[in-house]
Fold this protein.
Amino acid sequence: MADTESQQTIDRRATEPGGGQAINRPKGRSLKPLALLLPYAGRHWRTVAIALVFLVGAAALSLTLPILLGKAADSGRQAGGDTQKLLELVNKSFFWVAAAAITSGVLGAVRFYFVSRFGERIAADLRRDLYAHLLTLGPRYHSKMRSGEAVSRLTADITLIEQFLGTSASMATRTLITTFGALTMMMVVNWQLGLTLLAMLPVAMLPVVGVGRIIRAMSNRAQSRLADAGAEASEALDAIELVQAYSREDSRLANFTEAVEATFAAAMRRITARSLMIVMVSVLLFGGFVCVLWMGARAVAKGEMSFGDLSAMVLYALYAGSGFGMLAEVYGEVMRAAGAADRAAEVLNAEPEIAPPALPRPMPETITGALTFDHVTFAYDEATNDGKPVSALTDFSLTVKPGEFVALVGPTGSGKTTVVRLALRLFDPQSGQVTLDGIASAEVTPRDWRRNFAYAPQESALFTGTAAENIGFGTDNPDEKLLEHAARMAEAMDFLSEKEGLATPLGQKGRSLSGGQRQRIALARALVRDAPVLLLDEATSALDSESEAAVRRAIENASEGRTTLVIAHRLSTVRRADRILVMEHGQIVEEGSHEELVAKGGLYARLAELQFAEG
């Protein structure tokens, strides 16, 4: 079995409280996280400008309606008892009312189109950038995040931001314009009543500011609980065969139900807070509006105001009242979007552990494959009881010559897989260095460094698609003959030819294949990549004896002319290796050929005796 010390670390974290999530969310309660969206908005400023023009135009026209209706209401006084003149004035007034309403509707529709397009465009850009950044973050970062957590940020969180940009932001802007426009027009119609209403606004806004902060924190918690539920479902469905084999459907459903209920409870706390805010704003504002309109009605009765002016005041008061109620509701949506932006920013602000140097050194066009580990010490994050990290490799040194076939064997946890991960620069050592043809891994960009390696892991990660797409995964536009040749070398064409050949769909994660078949596809993927160094981590662990013999021959053929580093549990796989290195506790304890190591009677001899005795 391959070295799994880091995977054990990952598994332990996944069972820690909080689902193993190591991302600590700040508890800020402001709109500052929405600043993340400003650069994206800047890229599409033309769309924003067009949307704003039509938004302002639609809002301005809607503000003319109360004045026009007020004039229509005063038509009788202006006509002076002349019925014909009265009809003309009414027709004229309502013509302009209709024209303003229709034009406002058209402008609103155009505004909706551009605002919605803007929201969708920003969401797409942000979702892409978020995914691109997740791809740059190393295994250590991803080991601290449950599988559904990252997907939740790409989907649910970005959807909230899209809704904010495509709906809430536009609604808030339009409502602000109409609300303060209505207040301004109220002061134009009757400045005494307008000032009275304006004086009440600070009192009415207090609940929006105070409760709104609480809503954002609750929104963050609700989104976190939603991510937990998604992660629970993702883990269970990914291992559905295991869940069903052990009859754990009820327990997994109970876990998911608990996560869903926690999501519901968090959402209900947020909804309760928003409802309280809306009630407080409504009572304060509409109470003030009723008081002001009562004063206006008394002014009409005294002849100090016309009925048309009072009608306009009533409509403007409704504009302002409904506007503030809408703002209170939209503010809750804005807080949710701020929480989602906060979570997205946490990912985007995470620094890749394996970053390119400031001045990267170019790799030569021709690499011989001389791989060296020079006094390398590396430890994962977990610690012992004394608080010190557990070293996977301690002062580890190894030189693999160009074209040499070297095998790493040893008990689980001896550091074998760590050697491969450091070679691929999935991690960097705490001390020492890894070099290829004398060039240190830290001097080169990770992408340029990894182009020189072909890799087949113990767990054969396959993707939804055809066999050809999976085998050619590590190359750009691979030749079909090359794919077929690699598949034959890996003994994969035998079972593929029984189906649709290289066009055979493998299903999600290759679930239509057996474990051994998946591993042979993964091996073919490594073989098709023309890289000077071949890294194989337990390439034959899931194969039967017949398939193992075939793949062993394929490995021997593939290793010709390239440096090959193989981790093996089955010693029969590496008996013909140029050198066999026996590892224990992160160090090389024995070295030699199969015959030499058996003759020494050490750890390798004991492993060989146990294994071949079992065979």
Observations:
- Residues 356 and 445 are 4 Å apart (CA to CA).
- The longest strand covers residues 371-383.
- The first helix runs from residue 5 to 14.
- The two ends are 16 Å apart (CA to CA).
